[in-house]
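Batch job 17 of 40 flagged for manual review because the log was empty.
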Amino acid sequence: MSTVTNVVSAVFWGVLVLSVLVFVHEGGHYLAARALRVRATEFFLGLPCRVKLSRRSRKVGTEFGVTPLLLGGYTRICGMEGADDELLAPTLALVMERGRVRADAVARELGVDEDRAYGLLATLCDWASIRPYYDPDLGETPGQSTYPAAFETLSRDGRGLTEYDRDHDFSLPGYTEAGAPHELGSTPEEFLARERSRTYQGVGFLKRAAMLVAGPLVNVVLAFLIVTCAFMVRGTDYVPNVSTLGGVSQGSLAEQAGLVAGDHVTSVAGEPVDTWEELVGAVRASLERGEDFAISYERDGVAREVTIDLPEGQEVDEIGVLAPVETYYPSLPEAAGATLDYAGQVAGYVAQLIQPAHTMEVLDQSSSIVGISAMAAEAASSGAYTLMMFAAAISMSLGFMNLLPVPPFDGGKILIELIQLVIRRPLSVRALNVLNVLGMAFIVFVFVVVLRNDILRFVIG
């Protein structure tokens, strides 16, 4: 029963911690897209799944929800998929003119096969410029795995803005409902350019990079705030370099001699001591001699002396005195500085993962979902403070990990954007596939190694 309880506890706390951190991560991507006026149609906690619980926002159009596959999440930002095509403009113009049109009709009008027509319509759906029309008379449902036969316009205000666009106002003159024709008010190419400008592909490099960085950045900022506040509220323990006893171990030679916490030691075996380092050094030297020795100390302002009697025929390496521990409450700048140092250490540690000379060393000290879940349950059993600090550590690691220049991490996507910026053209589909395969191979390798470590560490023991 205890084993079952431990497993359930680990699963619960692991899923809870990771779900919150993934939610925060995806929230960063979503908020950045909204701030940059890029359309985002979905925001989900959990990996994509047909089974979901969701609700569409009337204000921003985004579908918010959760799926059963909680170890993940995603934000669907428009324009991150699909290739450009010179027929996108006439395709969009055709849908806008008719309000609703079948894919085979688009193929006939443009003189292309149905596969290309579906590709064009799918790209425009990804841009949230049009949407699929599921005809119940044909048995089509939104949950099906394929696109329906027809596509239709979205609701637009008089300025052509959809529900996904900031500042849309359906009360303005010129509003048209979904499925109704809508006048372009310009050439098809100009209208398409306006639609593209509201997608990921349609904004400049800096804005695309900002959307990619936002997720990891929010994870790091969240961890930074938690750790900084913890330093200020709980303080940090340190050992003052004084020769005052912080405690005495039960049953130790020091306790038998009568020493107690708070005693201020002035000499050991006749050697004056003023600091904890001097006290430890003098005690160690006396123990190495193997002879009884005296300790002079002050208690309540009264000078006293005791003798440490060493047991005959036994080697002794300590007498059981404990260092004093005090708590220091740093100011905001001091706490922030300490957190920055900590963040730098985490970033450096994560960076070693892609340095061949250190990869296995880092992996041997890393954990998978199994280890994180087990440690999350242990942290939760220690209290809210420990759990929060653990979550902060995972959040910071997650943030820096996502910045590694490895597809499909956010850092890998930024790397691809940089390459395309330098060569001034998009990478070919083949090149992108090669990069993604290499990235996934690295991720699978990392996962297998850390999962093996966790099984040996937490399951087999």
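Reviewer: the log was empty due to a logging misconfiguration, but the result itself is present. The first strand starts at residue 40 and ends at 45. Unflagging and moving on to job 18.
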